[in-house]
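Revision sheet: structure tokens.
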Amino acid sequence: MSRESLRALRALDTPARIQRFIDGMTYQYADTAWSPQRALRERKGHCLEGALVAAAALRVHGHKPLLMDLEAVRDDDHVVALYRARGLWGGIAKSNFAGLRFRAPVYRTLRELALSYFEQYFNLRGERTLRAYSVPVDLSRLDDRQWMTSEEDVWCVPELLIAARHYSLFPDGVGRSLPRLDRRSFEAGKVGWTKH
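Predicted:
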């Protein structure tokens, strides 16, 4: 990793600082999978790239570089960088939607953490779209693919996330009968939202 990138990651020495940093990155709508080094240089990215920057920063500070995939219907999946404190799970994420970002480490299980995103996970039709979550994916498995530093897109990361075991949050029938989000919650979730 370049000296500049390492210096930037070392300065992000708490999950809250990491979250503030990725919040400050310009949100981009693009079919990309930039490495943390490239996203740091460009200072922009979408949810995958924000999660990769967060995982790299956590790794620099002694944590495993773990990601969790949140799987949706009629919507994009979402990627969360995972961390633990005192045995409890928290999450760091970049999103164009206000409620799909940081989670303090208060969740006993990954299912609890995933469910904390449910109410704020909706599409532009106001449908609640979150359905499943993955096991933690350890990016150190991809070290030989240079996921932290590659100048090429690191498509190996989303491929690994998609292939990971996923768990449904509730039975299929429940999802078919969910009410749409009310207007107030919909508008609150879009605070800071940017168009394509």
